[in-house]
Amino acid sequence: MWGGAVSAEGPLGISGLDYEIGGRRLLSAMDLSVGAGESVAVIGPSGSGKSTLLNLVLGLIKPLSGQILVSGQDMSALRGSKLTRWRQQHIGMVFQFGELLPELTPVENVALPALLAKGDRGEAFKRAEELLLSLGVPVGTTATADLSGGERQRTAVARALMSHPCLLLADEPTGALDEQARDQVADVLFNVPGQDGCGLLVVTHDASVAERADRVLELSQGKLVDATIRGAA
Ligand SMILES: Nc1ncnc2c1ncn2[C@@H]1O[C@H](COP(=O)(O)OP(=O)(O)OP(=O)(O)O)[C@@H](O)[C@H]1O
User: Fold this and answer.
1) What top-level class would CATH report for the domain 35-59+79-226?
2) Which of 26, 137, 175, 177 is placed for a possible disulfide with 49 were both Cys, Cβ 3.0 to 4.6 Å?
3) Element housing 167 (H / E)
4) From 20, 51, 57, 95, mutation site for ligand 1 pocket: most ligand atoms within 8 A of C-beta
5) CA–CA separation, 155 vs 96, rounded Å?
6) What values do phi and psi take at 205, rounded to 5?
7) Three-state secondary structure readout of 20-74
């Protein structure tokens, strides 16, 4: 089992995490930490609880017991608008299907969270454009629906980075892509910790994506164990 001390300073520290659903113990005394500038991939069979783990980190569901620190803050201790604000300010999330609004342009999609949070409009559009250009996404007037699958996922990465999160989560970020687009999105995603200094936690079925991470862990019977993937560091 991979343990590791829970750091109050790092992007993510999980200790002794237990979670049950429908009378079934899904996570059991799980420990995990993700350091600044580090990437961790979690693999595991379907139904083993990988997405549930991300939902717990986001504070969308509460653990039975144990502690989840995001940027030093115990997520279980926060409720309502405080929890929402902490999540918005410290965590970026990339979903399998991007979860973008198809009729908006990529810049509008990326700027939207900042606009909804009543941020400065000009600054939001400027940062959105810079982020998209840095990730190789065209910033014209094309609707997001008309972009390629890979461009859409890179737009989703840009949106997740908009708030300068200390922790970036990704749930099957390349699951809907062909091989070439998968590699481009994985390049972009795994560059982020080195460039921004945030921690990256990626859940994936794809060994060629997982092996890019600094550490690969397998979720097995409620615990994270070291996984050896050919070519993994
Ligand atoms: N709200 C819920 N009610 C009942 N069971 C649930 C609920 N949410 C998740 N589960 C169950 O918990 C288990 C873990 O689900 P989860 O989505 O975390 O798995 P996963 O490892 O991400 O799977 P996949 O790789 O297929 O996405 C599954 O058996 C799922 O059916």
Assistant:
1) alpha beta
2) 26
3) strand 167-171
4) 51
5) 12
6) -90, -15
7) EECCEEEEEEEEEEECCCCEEEEECCCCCCHHHHHHHHHCCCCCCEEEEEECCEE
47 lines ligand 1 (CB under 6 A): yes
pLDDT (0 to 100) of residue 96: 85
Q: Report domain extents, the chain.
A: 35-59+79-226
Residues 157, 135: Cα–Cα separation, whole Å = 9
Residues of the chain above pLDDT 70, percent: 94
Residue 8 to residue 80: CA distance in whole angstroms = 23
Residue nearest to atom 26 of ligand 1 (CA): 46
Cα separations in angstroms, 11 against 72, 74, 90, 166: 7, 12, 8, 6
Residue 212, classed as helix, strand or coil, is coil
Gap from CA of 60 to ligand 1 centroid (Å): 14
State whether residue 174 is helix, strand or coil.
coil
22 lines ligand 1 (CB under 6 A): yes
Using one digit for the tens of pLDDT, what is the confidence trace for 178-229?
Answer: 999 999 999 999 999 999 999 999 999 999 999 999 999 999 999 999 997 6
Ligand 1 contacts CB of residue 26 (under 6 A): yes
Residue 80: partners with Cβ closer than 8 Å, 6 or more residues away: none
Q: ipTM of the assembly?
A: 0.95
Q: Please say whether the beta carbons of 30 and 224 come within 8 A.
A: yes
